[in-house]
Design brief:
With 152 residues, the protein is an alpha+beta fold. It contains five helices and five strands, in the order H-H-E-H-E-E-E-E-H-H. It has a five-stranded mixed sheet with strand order 1-5-4-3-2. The N and C termini lie far apart (54 Å).
């Protein structure tokens, strides 16, 4: 596949499947035997697993947006560094809605074949996400974790 086609597919995946929630297009954009090498918690394999993962993200962050910061292509590979933003307005991976805004980086490498994404490696800065959701303690001014950690 040429690099422009890889870029177009990647952008459609974000715009249509994540932003618009149009999962009906998944059949056209994602191979049935799609492999996510770094799945989110409890993500099943294949295209159906990706659809469920995207629905999980959209449930937790209904206003989710992904902005591409860096984009590179080489043959059938498309790599991006993206900024994910959204409001945690619904349950996400067992964390009830906090109504907090989040912003964190995601790096993704996707392999395309015959006009579809066939593989993906996604690295999300989940530490920053957990800090912003309040499910991971932050460092206090002294640079150490707060007393709630030391006392437990």
């Amino acid at each position: 596949m040429d690099t422009d086609a890889c870029k177009a597919i990647s952008r459609l995946l974000v715009d249509q499947l994540l932003h618009a929630g149009n999962v009906d297009l998944a059949d056209q954009l994602v191979a049935e035997d799609f492999v996510e090498h770094i799945p989110i918690s409890h993500q099943r394999p294949g295209r159906d697993g990706l659809i469920e993962a995207l629905q999980t993200i959209r449930t937790g962050f209904p206003d989710a947006r992904v902005e591409t910061i860096v984009e590179l292509e080489e043959a059938d590979l498309h790599a991006t560094v993206e900024r994910f933003t959204g409001t945690h307005a619904g349950s996400f991976l067992g964390v009830p809605a906090t109504n907090r805004s989040v912003s964190f980086l995601v790096a993704r490498i996707a392999r395309m074949r015959d006009g579809r994404m066939v593989e993906s490696w996604r690295f999300a800065d989940t530490r920053v996400l957990k800090l912003q959701l309040g499910v991971l303690p932050s460092l206090d001014d002294s640079g150490s974790f707060g007393p709630d950690i030391a006392d437990s």
